[in-house]
Amino acid sequence: MTSPSHANQAYWDSDAANYHAEHPDYLSSFYWCPEMLHEDQAHLLGDVSASSVLEIGCGSAPCTEWLQSRAHFATGFDISRGMLNHAAPGLPLTQADALSLPYATGSFDAAFSAFGAFPFLANLDLALGEVSRVLKPSGRFVLSANHPMRWIFPDDPTDLTAGISYFNRAYVEQDRDGNLTYAEFHRTIADWFKALQGEGPYLIEDIIEPEWPRELTTTWGQWSPQRGEIFPGTIIFVCRNSR
User: Fold this and answer.
1) Are 76 and 56 in contact (CB under 8 A)?
2) Hey, which residues does 113 pair with through a beta bridge?
3) Does 108 or 1 have the greater pLDDT score?
4) Dist. CA 204–CA 191, nearest whole Å
5) What pLDDT, on a 0 to 100 scale, did the predictor assign at position 35?
6) For 77, which of 34, 96, 183, 211 could close a Cys bridge (C-beta 3.0–4.6 Å)?
7) What does the alpha-carbon distance between residue 226 and residue 42 come to, in Å, rounded to a whole number?
8) How many CB atoms lie within 10 A of CB 54?
9) Closest Cα partner for 243 from 195, 200, 205?
10) What is the pTM (predicted TM-score) of this model?
């Protein structure tokens, strides 16, 4: 059976052009989430002027591109060659799987993921362990992802009726032969805490739930002003490597 990694690699390869056509503003700079929280405003990575920084699941790497003139060194990786092909020329990017990082132990001062990789990984613990391995001791790790509360609502961004179990941890699509073509994985708040800090290699320093800006009228996939007015769509964990 096709693994989630191979299924999602093929999915994002095929959807890369469409994804970029649908989200030009979001992909124009370093935004953490559909609420358009910018790193220049949030400073979640802190001062990176002397830091080596790794972006996890970088897609076409607008965040890594933004960091080029601000960090001592910034690089990123993504499993999808199709997404990487949309990156700006000359960026130091790698095609890789988050479950097996091609970097030496202790290579980076900071690592981050802005809606990249983690929602599509069945083995969250392995991926978080790999990030911890390539981070220096006490290195910063920042992760933004779908807020667990968003999972209980359908894809229609105008539908405010919760109808999906919060405790259903996966959504998959298959072709007629039963081969996996897409996989997305849900974590509850408790799941995230256990994976990051409870049984994981990090200390959580902050949790951020960005509010939907009143001036933002854009619908972004399942994120919309109607939903953003009443519940969070994004969760951001700011952590330190405890290994």
Assistant:
1) yes
2) 143
3) 108
4) 14
5) 98
6) 96
7) 24
8) 26
9) 200
10) 0.97
Question: Distance between alpha carbon 104 and the CA centroid of its chain, in Å?
Answer: 22
For residue 22, what are the CA distances in angstroms to 15, 138, 152, 220? Answer: 11, 37, 24, 8
Task: For the chain, list the domains and their CATH numbers.
Answer: 4-241 (3.40.50.150)
**Cβ count within 10 A of residue 123:** 14
| Burial class (CB within 10 angstroms; exposed 0-12, middle 13-18, buried 19+) of 70 | middle
Question: DSSP letter string over 104-166?
Answer: -TT-EEEEEEES-SGGG-S-HHHHHHHHHHHEEEEEEEEEEEE-GGGGGS-S-TT-----S-T
**Which whole number is the average pLDDT over 198-220?**
97
pLDDT at 1: 59
pLDDT digits (tens, 9 = 90+) for 4-44: 999 999 999 999 999 999 999 999 999 999 999 999 999 99
| Rounded Cα gap, residues 138 and 166, in angstroms | 33
CB 150 within 8 A of CB 222: yes
* CB contact set of 21 (below 8 Å; sequence gap of 6+): none
Integer angstrom CA distances of residue 206 from 172, 203, 234, 238 = 31, 9, 14, 5
